[in-house]
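Notebook entry, structure prediction.
Reason for the run: the old model in the group folder had no record of what sequence produced it. Starting over properly, with the input documented here first.
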Amino acid sequence: MTCLRFPTLSPFSVTLEHVPDRELGPLLTHLAEAGFENPLIKPARTRAGARKAARPRTVDLPEDWAVVRERTGESYQWPEERDRYSPYRVFMGTTRSEGVVHIGLGETVRKKKWGRDRKYVVAFLSSGGPQKPLAEFLAADDYTKSKELVAVIRGSDGGRRMYGPGDALPEIYEEHFRTEMYDNRVDYPGVWKRVVAVVREDDHASMLNHALIQGRRRGSL
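New structure, fully documented this time:
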């Protein structure tokens, strides 16, 4: 009788790189269903366009932002149109550099922006009503599901120039913010191939911190 022997296969170690936040949960569920319940998960550090933050204590950002007032009937006149905000909330934070800072967040909907009506949240330097715009956040294409907004990162030239895919971002964005490419989150002809900060609509601290950094980089504070 002939006895057949088959080689013993060694187990494999499989690495998946750059898994987006919104896909990590479903992936872990599928792995658990397949019997792999304890995967090793590490934060990825990649090129501009997909970074996740760890907040260092040395960064000069407020430890906390507190709502100090909510105003009704606020609006702001842009060159092309007037925004009307509801709600419009003023937050206060304290930094080592500026001391007490007041930034307002106004919510609105702009018609036919990149092919559809989109929610916008605009950050203003504001002790009361809107004074000086610092940053704008707009709804990503999948906003209904993800509740995520994106905002361009300016200042690569010390002014208003945005960051492209090959540009090195300031360290504070690499360490503190999640970033992606604009055209990955907004699909429409002519959309910029530039880096954006990505935040959830209820993450007011990240919005305010981004606005604060943008104000500093352009000398608006």
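Summary: The first strand starts at residue 66 and ends at 71.
The old model has been moved to the deprecated folder.
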